[in-house]
Design a protein that fits this description.
The complex is a heterodimer of chains A (793) and B (155). By secondary structure, chain A is α+β, with helices and mostly antiparallel strands. In chain A, 24% of the residues lie in helices and 24% in strands. Chain A has three domains: 183 residues, Aldehyde oxidase/xanthine dehydrogenase, a/b hammerhead (Aldehyde Oxidoreductase, domain 3, Alpha-Beta Complex); 332 residues, Aldehyde Oxidoreductase, domain 4 (2-Layer Sandwich), CATH 3.30.365.10; 146 residues, Aldehyde Oxidoreductase, domain 4, CATH 3.30.365.10. Chain B has 155 residues and is of the alpha+beta class. A five-stranded mixed beta sheet of chain B has the order 2-1-5-3-4, covered by helices on one side. The chains are: A alpha+beta (793), B alpha+beta (155).
Chain lengths: 793, 155
């Protein structure tokens, strides 16, 4: 019987946040602080010929100026292709080319205007398909000299920074067996993370050369490592402190402004330098979600079984793909969705473009590929006269079935998720619309996702038991709002039987809190959760050992109960945790053991490399989360406006650590999914972002919220803490394709690109711009009946 | 040239000299060290800088500090009285109506201004009141629940 895990424990950070007390980086003020601003490139692709900073340097109040020459070292999480300021050339509009630190923001701003940069403009590439042409201008001529991880495959001499391949089964045989072969194409544009907190960093250099940054970041340790490489500092001379973070969604996963503020602070010894991006700078100069072109060719039998699939994804990675290469990889190893397809050929290309830098975004490629996969399934089902729900059930991965990498899975919840969503949306029942020119429709979409992380990424936790029986839990898992501080505290409380309110959690200081790879990938409840559980169990073992000596009873008959070591046979024989926190006091006044400190370390077990040529492997990922959303919409035929009426979401999240917070993740994900489906699109003209503000780039507001029915299925992940899986990202993945499928269900029009804006929907209605499958009836010659040319609408 | 202004903030009288081009948000955050109100966009589009002036919710990034002269201002720091939370603060915690917390101070102040002038708001009144407050985390439903529950307590 669990006392804390699985219960709706209130957020441990609630009080500090409702009182306005919680401190985010931009709230921090330090004595002698300087303020930084950056000089940005007006060109998408240009050589830097000359930078003249003399006028800026002469301005009173300016304390330091840096250019690319001050930060020449290339860095990157997976591919070291970026510098913190442009060096030889600029590769996107808005790229930082110089930076100033001054005694006020206003002076810094004025100084930036005085910096003169001479450019020689170069031809650019503004979409993936142009960028892969053999005569396309190259963004990174030196790609062959960049360092990268062994699981990535850049193609020097091209704009392709990663080509990830899947070769499963025999694709030719699969297509030969198929009764029908259908081809579809989809496009997902760039979107913004848009956390309400913009990026902000303060850097301070001490006389010893030690650098401290206070950074609004998701991953203090990954940031520390990148900074140590960039500035050739040993790790103990770099300290990353992360106070409260105002939302991340992937946008704060890597390094951002640290690399600009550190060199400025090195020139102003002892004075902290703060750089906070404006909303416009944040929307252009920090990570965006990459655009993605997806082409899917499917071979299907008359009974509805998919027997072959050929997927090609082209990711518009932007100017630097240090992080984006891994999104292409994730798209590859998940390329067929949660379906068991025996023969698959997939090619996922990360492509440089002269656009803002693509990076991790909630879902890490899954939202993009599932927009294609899940519409593709509906198009095939409808073409074959089958019900989309039944078609999914036929092809869904079953227990003992295989993923696209050949991984055999058990405890697979996808079919149960489909059934739950089907029931909650009342699939098959058409509801009356609210007005004469309105039509209702329902659509469904599924998803699966695994944490996209290197095989052996590590997590650690420390627990100190205090002499009054309270405890301090230390981790570097960051609570970005998802509630990890609460969930991890619950796990520690459960093992130690110490109530949640008696545990204080400390996070995000690389000099103090133990290692955590990154807070990304919906991995924290699972990875950090396991580390915390082990740390608590380590402390528990020490307490039981001391209890055994103190009570004179064998350890195997002792347990922790209500903050005491208690005999499981004689419940009145007990000793409080508090009394042993600093060690056991013996009857003669001597002591043994000393303070109780629990240590927990975790690496996901048995995750191994896949074959380089085929992508096949037994366990390439730590775990999978499955889910489905069924959505009812109403279309206004006069305006094209889509209203989402109801979302029925069902997720197999394994053990739910905190139902209230888990529901919050799913609700928040659905609304973010609705934003990406209906509203959001980073509009670019030759790489220049035209809508870098909340007036022209709308995110959902309170009136965009539909009825939401959330179901959390608890099919355990055996390696997860108490059986938990991750949920943060999966929450938004199926929303957009489910809405697109609902549009087709309502009006028979297929739109294969995002966003499904009123303008686009109305245009499709008025001009009958539906796209359809390109269908080939196999063995009856090419281009059989029903063939329609593909295109993006 | 600096301007001399006087106003009340969270019940305390304040006299200040401010630059004519300084925003009210900047003055509150930098001169008074009340950092609850946040800058999310600097253009009145996200609502995270919302404070209450003479009973009305306003975006403090869109007002100049000099305009505060003679006004009665409340920020999130003034919501709890003598250590007792405002019902809205209680119900936001209870309903988990916050995640990252960055929009929370602005959201609370928009809701507070609503309940001050209309203790029994309809759902539409609530949506109208927080329509300009963007939250990227929660999906809003729990925020609506929290405000509704607080309205019940105020009755």
């Amino acid at each position: 019987m669990l006392k804390y895990v699985g219960h709706e424990v209130k957020r441990v950070d609630g009080l500090e946040k409702v009182t306005g007390y919680a401190k985010y980086v931009d709230d921090l003020k330090m004595a002698g602080m300087l303020y930084a601003k950056i000089k940005k490139s007006p060109y998408a692709h240009a050589k830097i010929l000359k930078i003249d900073t003399s006028k800026a340097a002469a301005l009173e109040g300016v304390k330091a100026i840096i250019t690319g020459a001050d930060v020449p070292n290339r860095v990157g999480l997976y591919l070291e292709d970026k510098t913190f300021l442009a060096t030889d050339k600029v590769r996107f509009v808005g790229e930082a080319v110089a930076a100033v630190a001054a005694i006020s923001e206003e002076i810094a701003e004025e100084a930036v205007e005085l910096i003169e940069v001479e450019y020689e403009e170069l031809p650019g590439v503004f979409n993936a398909m142009d960028a892969i042409k053999h005569d396309a201008p190259l963004l990174h001529e030196d790609l062959g000299n960049y360092k990268y991880g062994p699981i990535f495959f850049p193609k020097p001499g091209t704009n392709i920074s990663n080509h990830y391949k899947i070769r499963k089964g025999d694709i030719d045989k699969g297509f030969a067996e198929a009764d029908y072969i259908m081809e579809n194409e989809f496009y997902v544009p760039h979107i913004q993370h848009a956390p309400i907190e913009n990026h902000s960093v303060i850097a301070l250099t001490e006389p010893t050369g030690k650098v401290t940054v206070w950074s609004a970041c998701q991953s203090p340790y990954a940031v520390r490592k990148a900074l140590s490489v960039a500035f050739k500092l040993p790790l103990h001379k770099v300290r990353v402190v992360t106070p409260a973070v105002g939302g991340g969604f992937g946008g704060k996963a890597g390094t951002t402004l640290e690399g600009i503020t550190i060199p400025l602070s090195q020139k102003c010894m002892g004075r902290p330098v703060k750089l906070t991006y404006t909303r416009e700078e944040d929307m252009v100069g920090s990570f965006v979600r990459q655009g993605c072109v997806a082409k899917i060719k499917t071979g299907v039998k008359k009974d509805g079984r998919i027997v072959a699939e050929e997927n090609t994804f082209y990711w518009e990675g932007g100017a630097y793909t240090e992080y984006g290469v891994n999104i292409a990889r994730a798209g590859g190893y998940a390329s067929s969705g949660p379906y068991d397809i025996p023969n698959v050929k997939a090619d996922s290309y990360c492509v440089y473009t002269n656009q803002p830098v693509g990076g991790p975004y909630r879902g890490f490629g899954m939202s993009e590929i599932h927009f294609a996969i899940e519409q593709n399934l509906d198009m095939i089902a409808i073409q074959m006269g089958m019900d989309p729900v039944e078609f999914r059930k036929i092809n869904a991965i079953k227990d003992g079935g295989h993923t696209v990498t050949g991984q055999q899975l058990y405890n697979v919840g996808i079919t149960k998720c489909i059934e739950a969503a089907e029931k909650d949306i009342e699939w098959g029942k058409t509801n009356k619309a609210s007005g004469p020119n309105k039509l209702r429709g329902k659509g469904i979409a599924c998803m699966y996702k695994a944490p996209s992380q290197p095989n052996n990424v590590a997590s650690a936790a420390l627990i100190k038991i205090n002499e009054d029986g309270t405890a301090n839990l230390m981790v570097t898992a960051m609570d970005l709002g998802q509630g990890s501080n609460t969930a991890l505290t619950q796990i520690a409380a459960e093992v130690l039987t110490i109530p949640v309110e008696k545990i204080s959690i400390i996070t995000g200081d690389t000099d103090v809190t133990p290692y955590e790879w990154q807070t990304v990938a919906s991995r924290i409840t699972y990875c950090a959760g396991n580390a915390v559980k082990k740390a608590a169990e380590d402390a528990k073992e020490q307490l039981i050992k001391l209890g055994s000596i103190g009570l004179g009873l064998p350890a195997e008959y002792l347990e922790l109960r209500d903050e005491h070591v208690v005999s499981s046979i004689y419940p009145d024989k007990k000793k409080s945790i508090a009394s042993m926190a600093l060690g056991l006091e013996m009857p003669d006044g001597s002591g043994v053991h000393g303070p109780i400190m629990g240590r927990g370390s975790f690496i996901p077990p048995n995750v191994r490399n896949t074959d380089k040529e085929t992508g096949q492997g037994e366990k390439p990922v730590a775990f999978w989360t499955f889910g489905a959303q069924a959505i009812e919409i109403e279309i206004d035929m006069e305006t094209g406006q889509i209203e989402v009426i109801k979302v029925a979401a069902a997720y197999d999240v394994g053990k739910v650590i905190n139902p209230q917070l888990c529901r919050g993740q799913i609700e928040g994900g659905i609304i973010q999914g609705i934003g990406s489906a209906l509203l959001e699109h980073q509009i670019m003209e030759k790489g220049k972002v035209k809508n870098p503000n909340f007036v022209d780039y709308k995110i959902p507001a309170v009136r965009d919220v539909p009825e939401m029915v959330i179901r959390m299925l608890e099919i355990p992940e055996i390696t997860g803490p108490y059986g938990a899986r991750g949920v943060g990202e999966p929450a938004m993945v199926p929303t957009a394709p489910a809405i697109a499928n609902a549009i087709y269900n309502a009006i028979g029009i297929r739109i294969n690109s995002l966003p499904l804006s009123a303008e686009k929907v109305l245009d499709a209605i008025k001009n009958n711009k539906s796209v359809a499958c390109k269908v080939v009836q196999n063995n009856k010659g090419a281009d059989g009946e029903g063939q329609v040319t593909c295109g993006i609408n | 040239m600096k301007h001399e202004i006087s106003f009340t903030i969270n019940g305390e009288k304040v006299h200040l000299e401010v630059e004519p081009n300084k925003t009210l948000l900047k003055m509150i955050r930098e001169d008074l060290n009340l950092t609850g109100a946040k800058e999310g966009c600097g253009a009145g589009e996200c609502g995270s800088c919302t404070i209450i002036i003479d009973g009305k919710a306003v975006n403090s990034c869109m007002m100049l500090a000099v305009e505060a002269d003679g006004k009665d201002i409340m920020t999130v720091e003034g919501l709890a009285k003598s250590g007792v939370l405002d019902p809205l603060q209680d119900t936001f915690i209870k309903n988990a109506a916050l995640q990252c917390g960055y929009c929370t101070p602005g959201m609370l102040m928009s809701a507070k201004a609503l309940l001050m002038r209309n203790p029994n708001p309809s759902e539409d009144d609530i949506k109208e009141a927080i329509g300009g407050n963007l939250c990227r985390c929660t999906g809003y439903k729990v925020i609506l629940d929290a405000i509704k529950e607080a309205a019940g307590q105020i009755n």
